[in-house]
Amino acid sequence: MCPDCEDFARTVLLLGQLALYADMAGADLDFVDAVSPSLAVSLPEPPPGMFPDDQDPDGGPVYPDDV
Predict the structure, then answer these.
(1) What is the pLDDT of residue 17?
(2) Which of 7, 1, 8 has the alpha carbon at shortest distance from 51?
């Protein structure tokens, strides 16, 4: 796995685990509030080839009526 791919995958995994932890009873939501923004900002750019070339990350989803 390329280094950028590994960093991206690890950060996405950590964000997912943090989201699951936040939904648990008794979770420390102050911890979640403190860590989640920093973790999200540290998310690297997706490695080339991870998404289709015609996908515009700023364009939003394509709806059937928009085609």
Answers:
(1) 96
(2) 8
